[in-house]
Amino acid sequence: MAKTQLDMHKLDAAASRLRSIAHPMRIAIIGLLESNGKMNVTSIYERLKIEQAAASHHLNILKSKGILESKRDGKNTFYYLKHSALSTILECINKCND
Amino acid sequence: MAKTQLDMHKLDAAASRLRSIAHPMRIAIIGLLESNGKMNVTSIYERLKIEQAAASHHLNILKSKGILESKRDGKNTFYYLKHSALSTILECINKCND
DNA sequence: TGCAAATTTAACAAAATTTTAATAACAACA
DNA sequence: TGTTGTTATTAAAATTTTGTTAAATTTGCA
């Protein structure tokens, strides 16, 4: 095997994606969506006891990095996990380090 | 199941751990160690073409978050992954999002 | 001891994120 | 249209992370 070249592009993309989930509230959001499926913004921020704007902000970050998807239904926007494996991964990273 | 309570402590810990690997150079370091096993600081910074101090800094961050372990042998300090599953996780997070 | 190699720390400006508050935009409906 | 319920955007300040450079440690050995 040849000496693998550093692909800065891929590294940056991976880091950027990881940064998007490396935040306590965003991890909490992922956990919520994992157990509840689609949720609208209001139920998310009420459940997490954070400001509406903050929730919207975090949701947008997660969506822009491809972690979440959203679909508008009337007044509500429902968010949901794009890859359900994610919370398993988080759990693992968590457990792996005691 | 009862409405799961938010455990800020755990969330912060998980986020902190994730932040430690959410950096392009640190992901590169993890990749290197995954394929090479134990490495000393010099071979790491030469391979990644970064300053020695920068490498040491990143290594310390990863170690302090429990991602790496280190063992001194004479003048050298050898670093190695504490959990080899990590790079698999990184790969997955990467692939999961195209 | 004195020097060189390898690594760690410290310090600090620059850049990126978070937080917070206020405001704007959108959708449904009387 | 005007009002209300939902969600999104913006802006500014506060906080964290980076990136760099220089100085300090630690170890082996002449």
Task: Please write out the topology.
2 copies of one chain form a homodimer.
Chain A: H1 8-21, H2 24-36, E1 39-40, H3 41-48, H4 52-64, E2 68-73, E3 76-81, H5 86-95
Antiparallel strand pairs in A: 1-3, 2-3
Helix pairs in contact in A: 3-4
The structure holds a DNA duplex (30 and 30 nucleotides).
Detailed description of the structure:
The structure is a homodimer of 98-residue chains. With 98 residues, chain A is α+β, with helices and mostly antiparallel strands. Chain A has a single domain (20-91), classed as Winged helix-like DNA-binding domain superfamily/Winged helix DNA-binding domain (Arc Repressor Mutant, subunit A), CATH 1.10.10.10. Helix content of chain A is 59%, strand content 14%. Chain A contains five helices and three strands; from the N terminus they run H-H-E-H-H-E-E-H. Chain A has helices at 8-21, 24-36, 41-48, 52-64, 86-95; strands spanning 39-40, 68-73, 76-81. Chain A has a three-stranded antiparallel sheet with strand order 1-3-2. In chain A, a hairpin with a 2-residue loop joins strand 2 (68-73) and strand 3 (76-81). In chain A, 28% of the residues are buried. The model of chain A has no long low-confidence stretch (mean pLDDT 88). Chain A binds a DNA duplex (30 and 30 nucleotides) through helix 4.
